[in-house]
Amino acid sequence: MTALSLKNVNKSFGDIHVLKDINIEVEEGEFVVFVGPSGCGKSTLLRVIAGLEDATSGEIHIAGNQVNLTPPSKRGIAMVFQSYALYPHLNVRGNMTLALKQEGQPKAVIAERVQKAANMLDLGPYLDRYPSELSGGQRQRVAIGRAIVREPKLFLFDEPLSNLDAALRMNTRIEIANLHSQLGASMIYVTHDQTEAMTLADKIVVLRDGRVEQIGSPMELYNNPANQFVAGFLGAPSMNFFPAELLGAGGERTMGIRPEDLFIAEDGPLSVQVRHVEHLGGDTNVIARLDGHQITARLFGQHQVAEGENLRLGFKPESTYAFDREGQRLR
Amino acid sequence: MNKARSNPLNSVMMHGALILYTLIALFPVFVILINSFKTRKAIFREPLALPDADSFSTIGYETVMKQGDFLLYFQNSMIVTVASIFFVLLFGAMAAYALSEYRFRGNMLMGLYLALGIMIPIRIGTVAILEMMVATGLVNTLWALILVYTAQGLPLAVFILSEFMRQVSDDLKNAGRIDGLSEYTIFFRLVLPLVRPAMATVAVFNMIPIWNDLWFPLILAPAEETKTLTLGSQVFIGQFVTDWNAVLSALSMAILPVLILYVIFSRQLIRGITSGAVK
Ligand SMILES: Nc1ncnc2c1ncn2[C@@H]1O[C@H](COP(=O)(O)OP(=O)(O)OP(=O)(O)O)[C@@H](O)[C@H]1O
Ligand SMILES: [Mg+2]
Prior knowledge:
The complex is a heterodimer. By secondary structure, chain A is α+β, with helices and mostly antiparallel strands.
């Protein structure tokens, strides 16, 4: 059964058309990540799914039922917000139990679910503390706990890690992945961080200006991007683009090569001048100029390359991508 | 602690300025208080001297207690002030929430319309208000005053509170909606506590003009049983003779309740600022 299906969903704020004809299916138990640049409508889409905004047109089905007119609390969803949004006047236990009390669940059930969630997230010692007495990471876990206790059919996460520092972000990311496998519930996760998208997702939805650009598994999108935008958005450092003439090929095409597919070759077809070198230990990133275009090469291992040096780079012909003037992929 | 504040010289200067200001602000109150405990002669001979064995007298307070029903005036003032502030805060906050939270046609216009009252003094409409009160039979009731003061306080309340409510995190309200809280619960339990400093500000701004007002009590409720304290004290101020002992004693007693209300609200103000925020 599909956990969520969106059919031709549109959303406008007055004259501003924010979401344009969105069609998405989420299977049960699937982890779906919405990615896209800032302002592309990810949060708006999530809020439409949650029922916090009404769709201007289109249908929203959750677990088979159309929910366009259902209030957020009855949709069988739980949401985790970027700013945590904990109730400042309630302690951790109060924050986690509020929704259950509103539903009128019996006391025993509430106590059991809180216990379970607290164990899962290591929140046991903090149940009687107030949000202002917790660290950022703990607050985020409480926010996740508040979602878990409701046992929703669908979890919605809106950039839950963006307020955490790098180390904590990685730990919490792993925690969310574990949670997904333990609970087996469907999850929708919004981020503009492509590492989070690649590592967590069963399926990635790439959005741009309120439109779905491509839907697929992380490797599908990486290996087989439908257009220049998706190709450039996924993968770090991002794909190099330059006009095909530079390779001697004709036509008004744009060529794309991933930095990791480039290597130093004495007789390589690309003659570049090195501008900057980043030594990462395992990899070396070389940023260079190719006839006025910037090109990045990610070389495996450690290389001694000097700034200003002239290099020749090579690549395998099958690792190139071609795009037409509108950015559509040419195959 | 930042550098400027831990520097002892800065600290001394800052405290000096604050103490000077406090002295200036409290001086009139102090003069009223000491003179209310002096005989009439002593008041005029040495207005700044403290009452001593010779000049001490409670004649003012005795006059006040004999003249008219001061306790009742007290009670009237208290009821009018507290009820007016309550309604100003309740309706002001609700209107402000509607304006800041919901998108509807004419939202902007409605906000401007509600704020218009800040620039137009309500006393301009006194005649019309009096006619209206006569027509509804509210003359010489406390309700007449409460309604007028509520109307007088609302524009500023809506203006200040809607500005503050716009800053309350949307995520928090949305979390409440997802958890199944009603709009009323979200308003009363989540939003109001977070704008408590603003509410206290509005309350303090409104309280003192209401407490001190003479105009509307004189026009709308001059009857003996609805007199407010300010109006009641006027009997001691005559065109030719003024009973200064009584006036000063009445004023001293009038200060007390406002002081108590002020302390209550300013506590709220501080607590609101320091309570745990969203992030
Ligand atoms: N209430 C609103 N009224 C008018 N426009 C809005 C409203 N909410 C969002 N928008 C517009 O909709 C667009 C999408 O906003 P949204 O918050 O969904 O972006 P996002 O993809 O979540 O971005 P970010 O990654 O920065 O969070 C933006 O251009 C924004 O200006
Ligand atoms: Mg967003």
